[in-house]
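Possible race condition, two jobs.
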Amino acid sequence: MRVTVDLGRCNAYGNCVIEAPDVFDIDDANGLAIVLDANPAEEKRAQVQAAARLCPVLAIEIED
């Protein structure tokens, strides 16, 4: 799985960090989400999917 964040859509709600803190963080410089692990282990799929689902602006994309 490959995870990306569309920075043009991100509004820094932080839901992704709450759901998958090993995969996402907030960049101190611009306040937007960053991907810490673009290719997380399969065991983290449920967390990453929850993060994508809970993103109010649908800025997270998951590719298989």
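Job #2 (started ~2 s after job #1):
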Amino acid sequence: MKLEDFLTQNRVAYQPMSHSPVYTSQALAAADHTSGHCVAKPVVVRGDTGFTMCVLPASSHLNVTRVGQVLRDEHLRLATEAELSNICPDCELGAEPPIGPMFGLRTLMDESLHDEEYLVFQAGSHTRSVKVRREDYERLANPTMDAIAYR
């Protein structure tokens, strides 16, 4: 399913944005002229409990040890490109929207994003992104929140 369809079906207002191709969340922040603190970067991990979409600010790094503690999973690793292609078949690799339920995944969100009014993230393409209210994002993603990122 395409992100815009998912947002429309769930009655979430969003601002679509088009830009030149970007391949990192920090580059997305620059292209959209926004702070990396409010750009939501997805990182999918896999462990004994399955796949989880971790969401953190573009300006941060994932604390895999902490994610393992939160999920109570000692065998955590980053998902492979092949696994991501299977999980998110309608998305360009590396441009997945950070909404786990769209892909049948649970979502774990860094608590620092909860302070933002809006979130910006890629819309399944390296040339498209969206801006949504953070509270609408949380309603859709139903994330577990914890301190899972560091700078």
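Strands lie at 15-18, 40-47, 50-57, 61-62, 77-78, 106-110, 118-125, 128-133, 144-146, 149-150.
Logs attached separately.
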